[in-house]
């Protein structure tokens, strides 16, 4: 199924994480949602982040195998089950960085995805997501996300050279939480 494939958007996100993002990975607490083969999680761990790769139960064996096969013991990385919309308190406090690649392709899970992102994020959380634009319905997720996060589309010249041309439908967004407005 779709969860077992390393999609082009994962390659593009991992390349961007390594070469262009301004995140201090060595002090970052990172979670990847819908990790599948976990290429962005592997990249984050190799860059020094304390990393949690999450997915549904049936995919976790592959995720765990890939982490163990590609990350030496001194790197902090683990695998945890996560069903979007479920309680996330066992994963600990909010994360510095939330990663996601090819997560938005159906509307129903997108609502739960947004719920998970909000539950896992704090005021200083950065979100990095890559996706291939396939359906007009994907835009609805980003409109909803924009109510809670300031979103910036990464310029094409920052993407891997094989995907920076205008005919490529792969995009990366960077987002940070909007300040909370507390009423007295």
Written overview of the protein:
- The protein has 184 residues and is α/β, with parallel strands linked by helices.
- The protein contains 5 helices and 7 strands.
- It has helices spanning 8-19, 39-46, 60-70, 107-120, 138-145; strands at 29-33, 50-55, 77-81, 95-101, 121-132, 149-153, 170-177.
- Strands 3-2-1-4-5-7-6 form a 7-stranded mixed β-sheet.
- Helix 2 links the parallel strand 1 and strand 2 (50-55).
- The longest helix has 14 residues, at 107-120.
- The chain is globular and about 40 Å long.
Q: Which labels suit this protein?
A:
single chain; 7-stranded mixed beta sheet; 7 strands; 29% helix
Report the sheet with the most strands, covering strand number, pairing sense and barrel closure: 7 strands, mixed
What ranges have pLDDT less than 50 throughout 5 or more consecutive residues?
none
Distance between the amino and carboxyl termini: 49 Å
Listing every helix as H and every strand as E from the N terminus to the C terminus, the arrangement reads HEHEHEEHEHEE
Radius of gyration: 15 Å
